[in-house]
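Hi R.,

Here's the chain you asked about this morning:
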Amino acid sequence: MKKIDRYIIGKFLGTFFFSIVLIMSIAVVFDLTEKIDNFFENQVPMKEIIFDYYLNFIPYFMNMFSPLFIFISVIFFTSKLAGNSEIIAMMASGISYHRLMVPYAISATILFVLSFVLTGYIIPPASEKMLNFQDKYIQRFSRENARNIQMEVSPGTILYIETFQKRTNTGYRASLENFDGKKLTMRITADRITYDSAYNWHFSKYVRRDFDGMYETLSSGNQLDTILPIVPKELFYTAENAQMMTNPELKKYITHQRERGTGNVQAFETEWWKRWASPIGAFIMTFLGVTLSSKKVRGGMGKNLGIGITLSALYILFSTVSTTFSVSGVMSPFMSVWLPNFIFLAIGIVLYIRVSR
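And here is the predicted structure, written out as tokens:
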């Protein structure tokens, strides 16, 4: 690594961390102003506000908006280098434009690794504390009842529950069906199903039908005990729960739900691809920022910063809008998350070819 590499890396990372600390300080002040009434009304302890909410609020939103901060940081300090004719001096000393990109790529790699580790392994448990705090004191999002649940709890075994109450671990109007291929071999219907512990479930006032070819055996009773590899909390997972899972937990859950035939996994798949697309955005935003700001222009860096803020705002807006296509089923989770990266990468390549000439 040459001295010029260390110089650019130091400028890049220094500007990035300075800007992110500055913006997050402002964000905390605005958030506190907005929620201070809730804190007083619910008499929230100061310890919970600091350690359960804001200590987890900062890394969560810092990582969420890191592509924006990277883009603005690159444009800010690169425009300053170009304005001071430092890039011209580098080129005059024999450094090619491609070689100039090396320290930027190293810096982007550092931020990529940092963002990937934070997103996949550190932020999820922090998000759980933050969301639980919001659910308790600010706005409830957790459900007490689940309706029309249907899933494959094990190969060939389909469970249906019309209504399930979290507080009592009890469901109403339930059925359990066993299939051998496409052939129905057994069906249990019950007025009520209750979870006990360790995968033990109880059917109350049940009717059981066993099918053997053209013959049917009918039995009934007040209670039937069975083992089902499912626990009640799995019936209440929402999109917010995806943010609380580490990468291995999220991947395991998606695979498990697909095997069960559960259809509400789009939000979890979207979250999975976000955890790859967002860190990769560090490279794209760095690449795009350098090509926009490495030429010396009249008027200083104001024009470059204006373009940079506009493009980064469009990137965040496009990323937010495109993910809704996944939830509505218009587009696959992969394409809805990665489409903004593909488009802005194409823009960056075109600009890079023009500038490098």
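One quick note: Residues 79 and 301 are 5 Å apart (CA to CA).

Cheers,
M.
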